[in-house]
Amino acid sequence: MGAALDRIFRLGENGTSVPVEVGAGVTTFLTMSYIIVVNPQILAAAGIDQGAAFVATCLAAALGSLAMGLVANYPIALAPGMGINAYFAFTVVGAMGVPWQTALGAAFLSGCLFLLVSVLRLREWLVNSIPVSLKLGIGAGIGLFLGLLGLHGMGVVVAKPATLLALGPLGTASTLLACVGFVLMAGLAARRVPGAILIAIGAVTLAGVPLGLVTFTGVVAPPPSLLPTLLQLDVAGALSVGIASVVFAFFLVDLLDNMGTLIATLHRAGLMRADGTVPRLRQVLLADSAGALVSSLLGTSPTVSYIESASGIATGGRTGLAAVVVAGLFLLCLLFSPLALAVPAFATAPALLYVACSMLGAVRDIRWEDATEALPAAVTALGIVFTFSIATGIGLGFITYVGVKAIAGRWREIGGAVWLIAAAAALMLAVG
């Protein structure tokens, strides 16, 4: 078995071994496994059956990670993305009133576009043409978006007509437990404890049992049915209701998220070439785009490459065997649906806030001394959270970038892709 794995994943060539790769896979899984309980709850807010969403999440993560491991041979795991799932549930379905089946159809179309640009090798051109400042602004904006959702889910922030937002009743048991959960989560993460997010979610859930806030129905059970979401996407509806902005947002966020994670993790692993290019990039892009397509067919928001893969890489993971181990562990989780479905929303909301805080670190790399770079990035971030729409925030950011650069006489710095995206965004905002 060891010899076969060495041939498949070229372990010796990459200076690693089966035990090291297995350990890396387990570490990566522990750091990202919170998605198993968080994603179904977010999708349930869109009206999707929570049991089916749990199964779809596990299967999408397993299949995406397996594709990355076997096709690209990289230690990068995939799962439904944080941020893009919130956009799916709270903006597209909640605020825009789009049926979840149609939203899945839009996600499928964005996956097709994702696959097309990957096959035609346009993806690198698109990513390289988008200014770093806008990429950072998008990341920070999604962080703010998740932060607002997390604070609201914790009960710390509530709606108030006079001031739009206000401080919630902090004395309630669920809010107090959620706040304790966030502090515990952050403290464990600071101590570099593997699975810090999942441990905190579990602790808060257990604390809610004696208070009557949580009810367990078991530990192990057959997986819930996937039929409520399997192949329920409405592609025709996505084409007919004019939600091009949704397809665009899914595509752009998926594109930037995957590429950013790829660069960060492979650089950390020392797997990038000296000139900054990525070996087997075509295989990576195909695995990414295939994962996004499959997720919509199963009934969940698009998968993305997880930055948490860096935790496994830090322990020595260098090949796709680590990603295959992650895939196997996600499949194993299908047997523990009673535990996952018993976790209350106030226990998972701190995870949204924690992820949000980590994403806000992107702002430190914005060139604040250059107004033509800093202001569009700020507009992007603020636009995402204050319009409650990732697509709208991205569009406003690109339009601002083109306008500021042009007026400043620096129009030559505007890439071709930026002109196209800004024009498309202006058209979509104009027609509503």
Please, could you describe this protein's structure?
This protein is mostly helical and 432 residues long. Helix content is 67%, strand content 3%. The strands form two sheets. A two-stranded antiparallel ribbon has the order 1-4. Strands 2-3 form a two-stranded antiparallel ribbon. Helix 2 (18-32) crosses helix 15 (320-332), helix 6 runs antiparallel to helix 13 and helix 19 (390-407) packs across helix 20. The model has no long low-confidence stretch (mean pLDDT 84).
Could you list some keywords that capture this structure?
single chain, 432 residues, mainly alpha, two-stranded antiparallel sheet, two-stranded antiparallel ribbon, 20 helices, 3% strand
Please state the overall shape, judged from the principal axes of the Cα atoms.
Answer: globular
- End-to-end span in angstroms? 58 Å
| Sheet/helix structural class | mainly alpha
Order of helices and strands: HHHHEHHHHEEHHHHHEHHHHHHH
Helices and strands in order, then pairings?
Layout: H1 2-9, H2 18-32, H3 35-44, H4 50-72, E1 78-80, H5 84-95, H6 100-119, H7 123-129, H8 132-154, E2 157-160, E3 164-167, H9 173-190, H10 196-208, H11 235-240, H12 244-269, H13 281-298, E4 303-305, H14 309-314, H15 320-332, H16 337-342, H17 345-359, H18 371-386, H19 390-407, H20 416-431
Antiparallel strand pairs: 1-4, 2-3
